[in-house]
Automatic annotation (TrEMBL), chain B:
GO terms for biological process: peptide transport; transmembrane transport. It comes from Actinokineospora spheciospongiae. InterPro entries: AAA+_ATPase (IPR003593), ABC_transp_ATP-bind (IPR050319), ABC_transporter-like_ATP-bd (IPR003439), ABC_transporter-like_CS (IPR017871), Oligopep_ABC_C (IPR013563), P-loop_NTPase (IPR027417). Belongs to the ABC transporter superfamily. The keyword Flavoprotein does not apply. GO terms for molecular function: ATP binding; ATP hydrolysis activity. Keywords: ATP-binding, Nucleotide-binding, Transport. SUPFAM superfamilies: P-loop containing nucleoside triphosphate hydrolases. The keyword Hydrolase does not apply. This is Oligopeptide transport ATP-binding protein OppF. NCBIfam families: oligo_HPY (TIGR01727), PRK11308.1 (NF008453). Residues 24-265 form the ABC transporter domain.
C-alpha cells in the first residue's frame, strides 16, 4: 500500500497509477433501475494515455465521475468494485482523504468549458482559489502562479487575461483556462472528458497538441474520454471501448484499428465517413444502443451484431484474451482477430 | 468571377454577392448601432439540379446565416438569388408560398427542432395544414404514414411524441417533415452533428437514398469535413462570411489551393494510428477574428503563414488561380494534404 505523494515525487514504478476494478453503478430512476456500469475495469500507468471510447450512454463519463468522486448520489449508487489510486481504494476512503486526492492526485477537465467555469469570478480567481485553499499561498503568490499557468497553456497576454471573466474568453481559450486550472495542483492523472467536442477542428488540433505536450513533459497519466475515433487514433496509447456499461474491448491503439477484437469496434470503424476517400454507401450498425433499463440478456450487443449466434443471446461473454495485452468481451474474439 | 455563367439551365439556385449584416446595438433606452456583424459578406454560388453542394467552415463563418437567408427567414442586406431563374428574394404572396414548398430545411438539433407537445403525425402533417393543395384532408393520414415509411420509421408510431424516440429517429422525423411538401431543394444545416457515430452513418445513407429517389438538390452545411466529402458533389469553404475556395469534391480534398482549406484538412484527425506523426500537419495560431471587425484585405491573413503586405492591402478575389478551380488567395498553390 502506498499513499499519495503530495510533494509530487512521482508514483511507485510498478504499481499502476489508477486501477478501476469491476465497477458497478446503478441509477435509480422513476422508470426503474438503470444499470449504468456493469463491471468496468481498466488501469492507467504514469505517462500513459488511455482513451475511453464510446457513444452517448455507454457509461464512459459515469466511470470518470466515479473515479473523481463527483458522481451524483442519488440517483447514482455504487453497488460494487474499487477505484485504487496508487493502490489505495478511494471508494472506501474518508471524504477528507478524497478531497486531498482531488486536484492534486487526479484532476479533471470537462467538455463544456463555459458551464464548467463560474461566470461571476475572474479566471484568475478560479485558478488561485485552489492554490490559496490547498497550498496556503498568499494572494500575491497565487496570482503569480496563475499567470505562469496561463502562460503554460499558451494564452497570450496572460497578465491581462488573468483579470478577465470567462465570457471574455473565446471557446478555445476557455478550454485552455480549464486545463490551466486542472494543472494548478500538479496532478499525476488528468481525466479529460470530451475536451474538444465543443471546439472547431483547427482549435481542437491546438488543444490536443497542448494536452499531449503537457502530459509528456509532466509524465502524467491521461484518460481521454471521447466518441471521436479520429482524435483517439492520434493520441491514445491504449483504448478501452465501452458499450452499455461494459468495456467490450481493450488493447493498444494500433491493434484496435488494424484488427478490431470486438464486432462493435469493427462496425464503428466501418461506419465512419473518411476524409481520404469519397464513399458511396456507408456501412451502418443496425438498430440502437439498448436502454440501460432493459439491457438484453447475453451479450448486450447481440441484437445489433452481424455475427450473433445462439450462445450470444444467452451467455454474457467473459473477457477473452485473444492475444497478449488484449481483452475482448466477445465469444468469437479469437476468430474475429484471425479473420481480420 | 465564379465558375459558371454560360449555361444556367441546370442551375436550380443561383446566388450572387449575398450579404447579411446584423447590427450591433448598445444602450438600454436609446439604442445606438455601433457596428455590424458581417455574418455573410458577399457569397456567390450555383446549385445544380440533383447535386449536393457542401458548405464547410468553422463556427462563426456564416454558414448557418446563409441557410437562413436561403430559406427566406432572414432578409439579406444585399445581393441576389434566383430559384429556377426567378428572383427568389423579391417573391411575395402566392409566389412566396410556392417557394416555401420548394425549399425546405433539416435542422441540426433533433431535440429542440420538434415540438414536444405535438405527436409525430402532427409534426410531419403540419406542412399540409399550411399547404392544403399538396394533400387533401382525407389523404393526409395516409401521406404521413408513407413519409414515415420512406425515412425508415414505423408508420404505426404516428401517435407517439418526440421524447419517445432516440436522436437518430428524431432526425428522421425532421427529414420526413422536410419531405412532406415534395421540395426541390433541401437545406441541411448540420443534420448529423448531434448524432452518435453509429447513427450518423444511418442518417447519411438515408439522405443519399432520398436524393436519388426524389431527385433532390441539397445545400449541405456542416463543420465535419469527412461527412461533407462523403455526401457532396461540390464543396464551398467559408471563412468569416466569405467563400475562400469552391470546387468539386475532388478538387477541394485532393488539390486544395487556399491555405485555410489546407489547414482545415490537415487539422482533421484521421482514424488511423499508423499515420500518426507521418501526416503533414499545419497548425493555425489563435482563433477566428471577430466578424464585427474583420481584418483588412484577406480575412485569413492574421492566421496565415503565407501572408505578405499585399494580403493586408488588397482583398483577393475568388477566381481561378491554380489547379483549375476558384480560390481567394493571392498565393494560391496546390498542395496535397489528405493522405
Amino acid at each position: 500500500m502506498s499513499t499519495v505523494d503530495e510533494t509530487g515525487a512521482g508514483p511507485i514504478p510498478s504499481a499502476p497509477l489508477l486501477e478501476v476494478d469491476d465497477l458497478f453503478v446503478e441509477f435509480h430512476t422513476r422508470d426503474g433501475v438503470a444499470r449504468v456500469l456493469n463491471g468496468v475495469s481498466y488501469r492507467v500507468a504514469a505517462g500513459e494515455t488511455l482513451a475511453v471510447l464510446g457513444e452517448s450512454g455507454s457509461g464512459k463519463s459515469v466511470t470518470a465521475q466515479t473515479v473523481m468522486g463527483i458522481l451524483d448520489t442519488p440517483p447514482g449508487v455504487i453497488t460494487g468494485g474499487a477505484v485504487r489510486f496508487h493502490g489505495e481504494d478511494l471508494l472506501t476512503a474518508p471524504d477528507r482523504r478524497r478531497r486531498a486526492v482531488r486536484g492534486s492526485g487526479i484532476a479533471m477537465i470537462f467538455q463544456d468549458a463555459l458551464s464548467a467555469l463560474n461566470p461571476v469570478f475572474t479566471v484568475g480567481f478560479q485558478i488561485e482559489e485552489q492554490l490559496r485553499v490547498r497550498r496556503g499561498m498568499s494572494r500575491k503568490d497565487a496570482r503569480k502562479r496563475a499567470v505562469e499557468l496561463l502562460e503554460l497553456v499558451k494564452i497570450p497576454n496572460a497578465r491581462g487575461r488573468v483579470r478577465q471573466y470567462p465570457h471574455e474568453f473565446s471557446g478555445g481559450m476557455r478550454q485552455r483556462a480549464m486545463i490551466a486550472m486542472s494543472l494548478a495542483l500538479d496532478p499525476e492523472l488528468l481525466i479529460a472528458d470530451e475536451p474538444t467536442t465543443a471546439l472547431d477542428v483547427t482549435v481542437q488540433a491546438q488543444i490536443m497538441d497542448l494536452l499531449k505536450e503537457i502530459q509528456v513533459e509532466r509524465h502524467m497519466g491521461l484518460i481521454l474520454i471521447t466518441h471521436d475515433l479520429g482524435v483517439v487514433a492520434e493520441v491514445a496509447d491504449r483504448i478501452a471501448v465501452m458499450y452499455a456499461g461494459r468495456i467490450v474491448e481493450q488493447a493498444d491503439a494500433r491493434s484496435v484499428y488494424r484488427r478490431p477484437g470486438h464486432p462493435y469496434t469493427a462496425a464503428l470503424l466501418d461506419s465512419l465517413p473518411r476524409l481520404d476517400q469519397k464513399g458511396t454507401e456507408l456501412n451502418t450498425i443496425k438498430g440502437l444502443p439498448p436502454s440501460l433499463l432493459r439491457i438484453p440478456d447475453g451479450c448486450p450487443f447481440h441484437p445489433r451484431c452481424a455475427r450473433a449466434q445462439d450462445v450470444c443471446r444467452t451467455e454474457v461473454p467473459p473477457q477473452h484474451r485473444p492475444e497478449p495485452g488484449r481483452l475482448s468481451a466477445c465469444h468469437f474474439a479469437e476468430e474475429l482477430i484471425a479473420d481480420a | 468571377m465564379h465558375e459558371t455563367g454560360e449555361n444556367s439551365g441546370d442551375n436550380i439556385l443561383e446566388v450572387r454577392d449575398l450579404v447579411k449584416h446584423f447590427p450591433v446595438r448598445v444602450g438600454v433606452l436609446f439604442k445606438r448601432v455601433i457596428g455590424h456583424v458581417r455574418a455573410v459578406d458577399g457569397v456567390s454560388f450555383d446549385l445544380k439540379r440533383g447535386e449536393t453542394l457542401g458548405v464547410v467552415g468553422e463556427s462563426g463563418c456564416g454558414k448557418s446565416t446563409l441557410a437562413q437567408v436561403l430559406m427566406r427567414l432572414e432578409p439579406p442586406t444585399s445581393g441576389s438569388a434566383t430559384f429556377e431563374g426567378r428572383d427568389m428574394l423579391a417573391m411575395k404572396g402566392a409566389e412566396l408560398r410556392k417557394l416555401r414548398r420548394d425549399i425546405q430545411i433539416v435542422l441540426q438539433d433533433p431535440y429542440t427542432s420538434l415540438n414536444p407537445r405535438m405527436t409525430v403525425g402532427d409534426i410531419v402533417g403540419e406542412p399540409f395544414e399550411i399547404h392544403p393543395e399538396v394533400a387533401p384532408k382525407g389523404s393526409r393520414a395516409g401521406r404521413v404514414r408513407d413519409l414515415l415509411d420512406v425515412v425508415g420509421l414505423n408508420p404505426e408510431h404516428l401517435n407517439r411524441y418526440p421524447h419517445q424516440f432516440s436522436g437518430g429517429q428524431r432526425q428522421r422525423i425532421g427529414i420526413a417533415r422536410a419531405l412532406a411538401l415534395k421540395p426541390k431543394v433541401i437545406v441541411c444545416d448540420e443534420p448529423v452533428s448531434a448524432l452518435d457515430v453509429s447513427i450518423q452513418a444511418q442518417v447519411m445513407n438515408l439522405l443519399g437514398d432520398l436524393q436519388s429517389e426524389f431527385g433532390l438538390s441539397y445545400v449541405f452545411i456542416a463543420h465535419d469535413l469527412s461527412v461533407v466529402r462523403h455526401l457532396s458533389d461540390r464543396v464551398a469553404v467559408m471563412y468569416l462570411g466569405k467563400v475562400v475556395e469552391i470546387g468539386t469534391e475532388e478538387e477541394i480534398y485532393e488539390r486544395p489551393t487556399h491555405p485555410y482549406t489546407q489547414a482545415l484538412l490537415s487539422a482533421v484527425p484521421v482514424p488511423d494510428p499508423e499515420l500518426r506523426g507521418r501526416r503533414q500537419v499545419i497548425r493555425l495560431e489563435g482563433d477566428v477574428p471577430s466578424p464585427v471587425d474583420p481584418p483588412s484585405g484577406c480575412r485569413f491573413r492574421t492566421r496565415c503563414w503565407k501572408a505578405q503586405d499585399v494580403c493586408a492591402e488588397e482583398e483577393p478575389a475568388l477566381e481561378i488561380r491554380a489547379a483549375n478551380h476558384p480560390s481567394a488567395c493571392h498565393f494560391a498553390e496546390q498542395r496535397s494534404i489528405v493522405p
